[in-house]
Amino acid sequence: MATEVLVDVEVNGVAHQVRVPPRLLLSDLLRDRLGLTGTHLACEQGVCGACTVLLDGRPVRSCLLFGVQVDGQQVTTVEGLGDEQALHPVQQAFHDEHGMQCGFCTSGFLISTAAFLEEHPEPSDQEILDMLGGHLCRCTGYQNIIAAVRAAASRQEVPS
Amino acid sequence: MTARPKYVGGAVKRREDKRLLLGRGTYVADIQLNGMVHMAVLRSPLAHARINSIDISAARQHPGVLDVVTFDDIRDLVGPLPCIDLFPDSKQALHTVLADSKVRYVGEPVAAVVADDPYTAEDAVDLIDVDYSPLDPVVDLGSALRDDAPVLYEEFGTNVANTIHHEVGDVDAAFAAADRVFSERFDIHRYGAIPMETRGVIAAAEVGTGRVTLWSSTQFPHLARQFLAGVVSLPESHIRVIAPDVGGGFGAKCEFYSEEVLAPVLTMRLGRPVKWIEDRREHMLSTTQAREQTHDVEAAVNADGTVTGVRVTSYTNNGAAMFTLATTPASIFSAMLRGPYRIPNYRAESHSVLTNKTPLAVYRGAGHPQAAFVMERMMDIIAFNLGMDRGELRLRNMLTSDELPSDRGTEIVLAGKVEYDSGDYPRCLQMGLDLIGYHEFLDEQAAARHDGRYVGLGICCYVEETAIGPYESAIVRVDSSGKVTVLTGSSPHGQGHVTTFSQLVADEFDIDLEDVTVLHGDTDLIPDGVGTFASRSAAIGGAAARLAAGRVRQKAMDLAAHLLEVSPSDLEWREGTAQVIGDPSHAMTLGELAQAATAWNQLPEGFEFNLEATHRHQAPGIAFANATHIAIVEVHPRTGQVTILRYGVVHDCGRVINPIIVDGQVHGGVAQGIGGTLLEEFAYDETGQPLTTSFLDYLLPTASDIPHIETAHLESPTPLNPYGFKGAGEGGAVGSPGAIVNALADALAPLGVTLTSDGPYTPARVLGLIQQASDPAT
């Protein structure tokens, strides 16, 4: 058995210290070691986007990183977006616009959309399509996902 | 006092969303059990080969490995996996849990390893050494049918597993009398469901009782329980199947797979829970694929455009074995080819052919997309050759609502007799033409062609079997708090059953949606059920839930009459309360009645304790939905790129329970049809090696590939259930291939291109067709 490596990582604002094999994927670290199963694996080849998390605020595919690579960094998963009392505006918009069916790909869409709207508070339709192009959904036909991103964008324009 | 607005028919937002949005769903992969170990599967690297020997010694000795099995280790414990839609005279080309002396497709399970963690299990799979003698593979239909073709199952002496016949009217007389006969060969390519969640199972045997729990990403937990019981010879009472959150299925999980037996067998051997999560490559190799068929079609047509007869011989490339629902696509195709058209004389012969490809079974629409594609392509070819308008030709041949019900003289395996129940097909088509602006388009097309642009419009009208039996179960109970619990035998995977069923039951009791809890997907909780497939859940399962709720309400009324000492006819039901008419002060709430229903001494004679009822709803026949899809596309003549400019659907699924959910189903189905038509293909080389084993080479549509889908609804209630519901889950995928390919053919018509395949029309392929048409010598 290969030597295990100590990883210090802050996930959703909570500091964790975990000892992991060097080959353990970040996605498996989050899911199996930290119990954050909202991050889903649908291809493990970096294509589908389901496993997207934020690493120091930027969206990354957690299936394409090893856990040891996030040492000393901050990770945000879908569990860190909103909570039961207050859904994140993007989560609320996906609900309002029926931008989800089976829910399996949804976490990745939510994470990418949240990061995208931070950088593009007033996105054009083409910018929305370009961002969504990094994610696969097999249920919705994307129409209501596009509507949800637009709705979330329009809500974020309201000064808080 | 105004009545409370009803939920049924309303755009009710989904109740299942919140936990999924918060990342708190529970899919099989999310479940961890104490002492759980992990299974990995060794799969065949060859399409057709004899297994001489399997050496598992190195794998067994690998640190962390707990067990390794081949078929010889479990041969005495397991029977073959069932195919439930075989005809009595079909070849029983059933598959075994692991390969028995021979492999017949790349990806076939050969051995299984269990280890402490999934990484180690995969390492050990690589240490298994299998000695194969390759055999000649049969890959395409043509070579599988040759007299000298290698046969997959020597005992049958043929690769044809099954043949279905239909004969309606006097077909040969119709052809003899026809003014024109059109003949075409149509090819449908292989693509598939590809749910975002791959398959997965966990099995745990209870020490001391041997009772097995199987968590599976399945569309039909109750059927899985029955199949597992049969394969491992356990009584169903010793098996519990749980379908937790399931991340899409579309038919691919409407199957019972080897891994759903392997994990239970291994947990029984080891006494520890065994988990297996399919990876995407395994999914592309070993989960059922779909659609692939070839059809020789002839149509007998009068000069006025009346189609008097159709003859069709079709072949389905079923791959290497007859899986759970292997015959259904061919059966639906041949029973439903004529769609909404009269065509009084009809003959179909439909063969299921075995090849060394991954097994084929149902995928959203089963044989309907193929039928709609073939019939609607044929209609356009006839219209073009007769110089008739496409819409007019269709309207001339369509059954009108006055002609329904209409016994079509065919039958679908498992589902039964094809007798169209209700609908207005001509109106649906007319609404579609109006929605898209058909006549305006013809003017625009003329102008576009003048400008050197290639735009085209395609129509696809279809009729679709939905809401099939045999039945669905529901238990409705009211607890002492007055809240209602619904247990349904239909287990969802994204369709929104919780919301839909809540709407139905809340309306029956005239209570808030939030007062209804809907539970599903656990065979210990719900004694029996059938599942979610064939667009059946709302119509059959929903009707069962509503009817069970009605029985509970009646029981509550009877109890209230007894306790209030009035006649039942003096009571009315309002807002979850039985009230004396005209005197709301004399009333009992659901909660009070539920409490009274469990109390001593005060119940009416013969009253069964508790406010609970079970109903198993059996429809007296199939409810047939229908739709018109119209696509407008543009082809870039120099790149071959196909752009969908407009897409319209007029959909008739009877009475709509929730338009948000129905539209979502239509969108998703259309997107899958677009994917199959423009992008997706399970490709194989001539040795049977799959070429599309990842999302890098099997292209799924992204947001940019799907146009805005315009929808409109026509509601023709079915008389086959009390509420008029038909199914809505699959139709989007049924109409889209035909609509898009007809549009593409229309766009390319000035170039002399003819299309007889359903795709995928990738830019390279379209460019090739254009070049071939402009220079036939190439």
Summarize the model shown.
Chain A has 160 residues and is an alpha+beta fold.
Draw up the topology in text.
The complex is a heterodimer of chains A (160) and B (778).
Chain A (H helix, E strand, L loop, with lengths): L4 E7 L2 E7 L5 H8 L18 E4 L2 E4 L11 E4 L12 H8 L9 H14 L5 H8 L10 H14 L4
Parallel strand pairs in A: 1-5
Antiparallel strand pairs in A: 1-2, 3-4, 3-5
Chain B lengths: L16 H5 L15 E7 L5 E7 L1 H5 L3 E6 H4 L27 E2 L5 E7 L2 H8 L3 E6 L6 H5 L14 E9 L2 H7 L2 E9 L11 E6 L6 E5 L4 H12 L6 E4 L16 H12 L3 E4 L2 H7 L6 E9 L5 E13 L8 H9 L8 E10 L13 H19 L3 H8 L8 E7 L3 E5 L4 H12 L1 H13 L3 E13 L5 E7 L5 E5 L8 H13 L6 E5 L16 H28 L6 E4 L2 E4 L2 E7 H7 L14 E7 L5 E13 L6 E11 L6 H20 L30 E5 L17 H18 L14 H12 L4
Parallel strand pairs in B: 1-12, 10-11, 14-15, 20-21, 27-28
Antiparallel strand pairs in B: 1-5, 2-4, 2-6, 3-5, 7-15, 8-13, 9-10, 9-12, 13-14, 16-17, 18-26, 19-20, 19-25, 22-23, 23-24, 26-27
Please write the CATH class name of the largest domain in chain A: Alpha Beta
Kindly report the name of the CATH homologous superfamily of the largest domain in chain A.
Beta-grasp domain
The number of domains of chain A is 2
What is the number of helices of chain B?
A: 20
CATH-level-4 superfamily name of the largest domain in chain B: Aldehyde oxidase/xanthine dehydrogenase, molybdopterin binding domain
Low-confidence stretches of chain A: none
Summed over residues and divided by their number, the pLDDT of chain A gives a mean of 96
State the total count of DSSP E strands of chain B. 28
Question: What proportion of the residues of chain A is helical, as a percent range?
Answer: 25-40%
What distance lies between the first and last C-alpha atoms of chain B, to the nearest angstrom? 78 Å
CATH topology of the largest domain in chain A: Ubiquitin-like (UB roll)
CATH architecture of the largest domain in chain B: 2-Layer Sandwich
Q: Beta fraction of the residues of chain A?
A: 15-25%
Work out the radius of gyration of chain B: 28 Å
Question: How would a textbook summarize the main sheet of chain A?
Answer: 5 strands, mixed
Quaternary structure of the protein:
heterodimer
Instruction: Please identify, by name, the CATH architecture of the largest domain in chain A.
Output: Roll
